[in-house]
Amino acid sequence: MSNQEYASDVFSMLLEDKKNALNVYNGLNNTTYYDPELVEICTLERGISLSIRNDAAFIVASDLNMYEHQSTYNPNMPLRNLLYLTKTIKPILKGQDLYGSKLIKIPTPRFVTFYNGAAKRPETEIFKLSDSFENKTDTPALELTVTCYNINPGFNEELLNKTSILREYMQFVNKFRELKTNDD
Fold it and tell me: What value does the mean pLDDT take over residues 50-68?
């Protein structure tokens, strides 16, 4: 297992806990939900697909939150999240009549990546699915945006102060990186 997979697995394990997921949700959305039972975990597990596996997904207040950890720069997060979304939404639609005349409501998807790699990146970046389209258009028929927050020291301090889980995770990864560097 690579260091990147290890950090991502720790991130996933942290956000499988409803209380931790709610902590990050509240920090990102400036909300004050207190009851972890409001959180419905819907992360894709390895058993569902070996190739389609996300880090964390959960529903709170009709928002489908899809969070990823990245220790390397990855402009393909919108495309990856599109695949994650289709796999995640399928069980939610079970029993619904997609061909019927009644509009089917789904949770509002929100896509976030937390970056703490060694490469210099801005504090916040927006990645768009349409950036990967071969034929550029001002009005893409399909768009998916991912907000990427740099959680390295000195970045997004306000968010990290509101979200103890992210701050502690960032500190853990930095310590792990430091110890790994000393071993090399």
Answer: 85
pTM: 0.89
Q: How far apart are CA 84 and CA 54, in angstroms?
A: 7
Neighbours of 7 (CB within 10 A): 21
pLDDT of residue 13 exceeding 80, the answer is: yes
Q: What's the one-letter identity of residue 113?
A: T
Angle at 13 between CA 9 and CA 18, to 5 degrees: 150
Taking residue 33's Cβ as centre, other Cβ atoms within 10 Å add up to 14
Question: If you count them, how many residues does the chain have?
Answer: 184
C-alpha distances (whole Å) from 37 to each of 25, 33, 89 are: 13, 10, 20
Q: Please state, in angstroms and as integers, the Cα–Cα distance from residue 103 to each residue in 90, 96, 99, 108, following that order.
A: 16, 10, 10, 15
Name the E strands within 31-179: 40-41, 56-60, 63-70, 108-115, 124-128, 145-150
Distance of CA 117 to the CA centre of its chain: 15
First to last CA, the chain: 17
Taking only the tens place, the pLDDT of each residue in 111-155 is 999 999 989 999 999 999 999 999 999 999 999 999 999 999 999
